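Quick entry between incubations.
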Amino acid sequence: MTVGLEHYLVLAAVLFCIGLYGALTRRNAVVILMCIEIMLNAVNLTLIAFSRYVVPQLLTGQVFAIFVMVVAAAEVAVGVAIILAIYRGLTDIDVNNINLLKW
Amino acid sequence: MNPIIFNLEKLPDWFGVLPEIILLVFAALVIILDLFVSQKKILAAVSLIGIIASGALSLGFWGTELSFFNGLILTDSFAVFFKLLFLGVSFLIVLASEDYVNSFRRLQGEYYALLLLATTGMMLMAGAGDITTVYVSLELTGISLYALTGFLKDRKSTEAALKYLLLGAIASAVLLYGLALIFGITGKTGLGEIARAVQAQLSGSASVSPALFLGLVLLIAGFGFKIASIPFHMWVPDVYEGAPTTVTAFLSVASKAAGFAIIMRVITSVFAAPDWLARDWATVFAVLSVLTMTAANIVAIPQSNIKRMLGYSSIAQAGYLMVGLAALGSSPFPGALAGMSPAQSGVLFFLASYAFTNLGAFTAITIIAQKIGSDEIADYAGMGRRSPLLALALTFCLVSLIGIPPASGFMAKFYIFRAAVQADLLWLVIIAVINSVISAYYYLRVVKVMWLESPPSAEKVPSSALPTVSLAVSCLGVLALGTIPGLIMKLAEMVNQFMP
Amino acid sequence: MTIPYQCIWLIMLLPLAAFIANGLFLRPWVKKQSPAYGYVTIIAIAASAALAIWALLSVMRTEDHVIPVPDVSWAVIEGGVSIHLGIIMDQLSALMAVVVSVISLTVQIYSLGYMAHDEAGYYRYYTFMSLFTFAMLGLSLSDNLLFTFVFWELVGLCSYLLIGFWYHKKSAADAAKKAFIVTRIGDFGFLAGILILYLNTGTFDIARLHELAVTGVLTGTVLMWAAIGLFAGAIGKSAQFPLHVWLPDAMEGPTPVSALIHSATMVCAGVFLVARTMPLFVFSQPAITLVAVIGGFTAIFAATMGLTANDIKRVLAYSTISQIGYMMLGLGSVGMTLAGEITSGALHAGTEELLIITKGAVAIGMFHLFTHAFFKALLFMGAGSVSHATGTFDMRLMGGLRRAMPWTYATFLIGSLSLAGIWPLAGFWSKDEILAGAFRAQPVLFALALITVFLTAFYMFRAIFMTFHGAYRGGAHEAGHEHGHLHESPWIMVAPLVFLAVMAVIAGWWNLNGDFNRFFAHEAEAQGFVSFFTVFAHRVDGMPLAPVSLIVAILGIFSAYAVYIRRWVTAETLGKVFRPLYLLFVNKYYFDRLYEDIIVRQLLMRGLFRAFAWFDRNGVDGAVDAVAETVIEGGQTLRRIQTGQLQLYGLFIGIGVVIIAICVIFFG
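Done. Structure below.
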């Protein structure tokens, strides 16, 4: 059996769902960030697979994936900084306890 | 349907992003200056100069139809309209921040720099001609705003920043997945190319492929987060309450306008044909709009914190704006999307009106909060006697949010509702009008507290020069748009020529 | 040179600028009592008066007596309603603009002296006055009924504010309220008229409506009810029977206000409105007949009440009502004649010509409006000058003022002679025209008008004899006010009086040889007019009108002389002999009683309102409360979803995706 476009897409979809599930269920803010990274990487996989199979003569998907990685890195940097700030005040990064703002 | 995009070889590519480059340079300059100058007001002045310079350059692109970097960046009138809107908003925000930044003690340079960066991101969003630009500019705006939200560094502020960041990241991952699917189906990244490919694929067929369907759904969800449509709105009240007031103002105005700009770039233009596809997303916007208006207005009623209340109010306003998007998609005139559509000019007018109105309201709140140190509506008692002009300005802005003439909110709603009626969406307009009536309840409650209840102390509420100027400009804008709407409507109609 | 159209805009915008300058920019820096407010207003209105006169001269010089003015679009909505703010500059609006701005200018100058001692200060007064002038000019110049209505309401508001200027006095506050409510009844008709017109024609534009009426598109009952609706507005604003009750009470306002608003300009707005929409009336015979009848009846009806009033301003107020009745009669009678000719087919004219003739039919009524404005403003300001000296308006407390106040006396006398219609003063010429018009149209109306001439002369000279002749009876008795020393008013008050007195003499000469009529009606009906002296030899349908009316007027003056100076018959004796009539006049025909006691108190308050209150408490309130409570409860419940839990929010994003998908699948 040959590995085709659909295999990559299914894998990416599964990864995306795992990431989303993790982001919605894990309590640790850092782990949530990591789950979001999984989602983004699932998308990267989709992009590259599409690029390879739909427009093999171009590199648009790959370049897009690089953009996504750069942006994700920046996002994580800011995210970790904010989590750190929370930890300083609360000595805790369980998102269940971060609920001062509500209603 | 197919406007000619000139590729003038004489213009170098960097020329197309000159306004954004200027803003970036000034952002860097502000950070560097922050290290040397002790008089922090200079930073505000430098930022203002940058904004003006960038605005002047943007204005130069009015009426042109140029594209740069092989179509990554477009500089048409649509883009210029929004760029000027964003620059105008950040100009007024910088003015209004004069006193407020003192509560940050350190890092004032970063505050202004981040504001400029967020503005840059929004400007790129307005001029995006490619899905890569869409994503990168969206994230540039987003990340700057996450940092700004946490700027106060107290518990509420950091909590708001964390919520905004995590939810924003999830939403943008969802959006990105949608973009990837669209790319996969069409094999293109340019918005114009995608539009043509979609049209070619769908011509003759009566339904979308599952992948395109999923892509479109995810796109709407991702942008729905940006414009705070229910049910993607949950971050809004928390973030608005926790963020520094000036940042809240910026979020509620510029960020939302940017969301609508990008929706009009990506969804309403690219998926405009065939007609049944346009009606599909129009239905989505109609349903979301009903949910958004109704739920937001009802939940706004019991709020006691004015920032939170205005958060729900801004969600409701997004609901009215989506009435315009629904009208845009279900317009009965063939080719209405190609330009000269009353729905699109209505949305643009509403955004301009809403920008002035909400900025005015938030500036007034910022000034008042400086003095009384509270955002609770109950603490606004007797504001009419303590500071009549301030209370009057706030009242005027709230009246505009309800949509009562002569304030601009009336004309804005009028234009949008009228377009919706023309598009056979009378039922939607009726729901929207009922919602406007409900909304009067919580807006007027603030007015009542300010004017009819007795103040806890007779102390005046002082306001410094620059925030007052900002407030006055906003109120004049509201009045001008409300009394001479013909002028700005003409501009909005000129913008209509846009197509990718 | 012809006036550029931008300057025509300035005519109405300058007073608005003065209003804004006074209200917004001057107030924070200048104290309330400063005359600076007055100067700003006076300068703006003087400029506007100069421009108005220029505009009038330009209109007279142009061929078709219209200067085109480009519209300003107020709201552009493609393919739908487009609302334009436009102005007309033709004979009618030019004349009205001149009257309003010139009278306003003299009143503002006079007020500098009159209001000098007022604690409330110049600020409020001049701010309102400039707003009023703006609104009144806007009303005169507007080219569509919608904006006419807006300005109409605005002058009503100014009138309300200025009647109640001394709002701490209960009588003033009550009078303001009364004026507002009573005119509102008429405005209801006005609005209904506008709506009838709009729904049937789709336009507010006055010129367009004229065309539709003349070409016969707009006709029958629609036109009749629309015209009657407009006339209802005119009845309210111009204090015609049966809505006349507010004007005498409105005299509670400062006297210059009465001079400007309640005699010369605003109350004439009703006449102006009818004149502006004259073609609509001419093509509806019932409506134009109603105008003539109401006008003729009001003229004599108000004059009788003027006979017994003791307050000098009230005498003038009744006189104003009566004179406006005259103007209505002038419009109505000419219109009736014309309408008769059209229906009987005696008039053969093309559409274009017909339009000019019908619009020109307003000449006689407008001419009386023009002359009346000068002498009535003069009389009011004279009365103000008198009270400035005596501290009262009650004529029973005056007397013998002619020696102490020679200027006031002389100008007041000229005004009264003019009003009574004595040759060769202004009132004579304009009143003569109306009598002639009535004579041609309907002999009964003519008889009413002729009796009114006698009554007018009588009550005006009764006022003069009671005020200026005989011995001084001591002025106001209020504590702390010493008015023992009588004095002439300061020059700033006398100068406007003199100017107006000159105008009260010469204003009527405009129509010598029919110049004024020719201006309005082009060449169409400019025959049979007279020069300065030949007027007495002129006969209308075989009747020497001018000598007759002059004799009647002199008879009126002589009767007043007989009763109040010579006392051959005393007023008391007359009162006893004609007791029933006397009581009727003194009690103002019991109209106040009818309106206030019977209609308002018994019928409305006891009956209707009580029923409403019951329904409101038990029906409406209950329902509204229930809905409001449901909404508030809903809010309380829904907000609980916002738990502050980050991941719940994230879950909602997922739910949202599902909602969108469902939308597309099931509804799309």
